[in-house]
Amino acid sequence: MILKQLHLHNFRNYDDLTVDFAPGVNVLIGENAQGKTNLLEAVYALALTRSHRTSNDRELINWQAHEAVLSGSVEKRTDTVPLELHFSAKGKKAKVNHLEQSRLSQYVGQLNVIVFAPEDLSLVKAGPAVRRHFMDLEFGQMSNKYLYNSGQYKTALRQRNEYLKQLRSRRQSDRVFLQVLSDQVAALGAEIIVARAAFLKQLEKWAQVIHGDISLQKEQLRFQYATQVTLDDDLKVEDVYQALLELLTKNEDREIDHGSTLYGPHRDDLIFLVNDKNVQTYGSQGQQRTTALSVKLAEIDLMKEQTGEYPVLLLDDVLSELDDDRQTHLLTAIQNKVQTFLTTTSLSGIARQLINAPTIFRIAHGTLEKETEETNETKTDEQVDSSSETE
């Protein structure tokens, strides 16, 4: 999967920009606050219909405009798909092959992306909500069914929580309706739990190999899916549904007292074990970063396994947060494998670690300029001359 072309109109600090990208490594270089991350955000938003930096879509629209438009051309194994996304005060509109989609869940998955930013290194040591968001985000790209169930579950959960609050305040007394809501939450929750368990098993397989390579086979990484129902090897949705419904039914009084649903996938967690020790609690910073890097790189292979296409990789200034060994492993792993967009303030060390020369774009004040071979040769000559003068 390759993003061949991207067009931005009134998106963040870009008034109007059309750019063609290379299938390999695309380096976006420039000083801070010039628009590097905004460009990555545009690729992410084109894929997932929302930003990874803000939940307020209005922030994506240029302050002088009323609408922002993203469009792009995605090359897949069998065809090339045009995508288009509109942001406005009225909401979002998404088009695939110039046809508007009735639901955003039908649009997501046309372009798969993985973003790796400095804050993603906190995947291991942050709270459970971060890891639940990670699972929903990544697995939703791989499965429209998971994405749909996740959205439906959040709606059912919100309705049940509102009704629990009404029961607590005595504004309602009908527990029959609560049982109806419990059934909906249990049915959708079971689908999510079973899907997560299956995806995590496959993700663990890929992450173990990568983690072993980075640690020189001194460490073994394992995943533990922490959920409130017992998960057997022969996992069935019906069994999980019955177990979850029983928990909700048994604990109605307790949940009414709290005014919220205390059982379900919205309370689950993902625990990382390195040599059978919880790396969140007992791991060194190096082990935590190796785990986060292993998980992110494993996503690439898992998406290929699940969708038949490699995703697009977005690296937002993450190299500055990794030591030389982890940088080398990251850049080696992506070469000739996935289309990559990498933001940085300096090219130092990057080109030396890549087999094929990257395509370089210089960004300043919301404008973008692609470096040509002539430009590179001129800069190299200038560096040589400068070096000679220094000597």
TrEMBL record:
Spell out the protein name for this chain. DNA replication and repair protein RecF
The domain of life for this entry's organism is Bacteria
Which Pfam families does the entry mention? SMC_N
Q: Where in the cell is it found?
A: Cytoplasm
Q: Where is the RecF/RecN/SMC N-terminal domain?
A: 3-345
One GO CC annotation, please? cytoplasm
Residues noted as binding ATP in the record, renumbered to the chain: G30, E31, N32, A33, Q34, G35, K36, T37
Which gene specifies this protein's sequence?
recF
Report the HAMAP family cross-referenced here.
RecF
Q: Which InterPro entries match?
A: DNA-binding_RecF (IPR001238), DNA-binding_RecF_CS (IPR018078), P-loop_NTPase (IPR027417), RecF/RecN/SMC_N (IPR003395), RecF_2 (IPR042174)
Q: Which CDD domains match?
A: ABC_RecF
Q: Which organism is it from?
A: Paucilactobacillus vaccinostercus DSM 20634
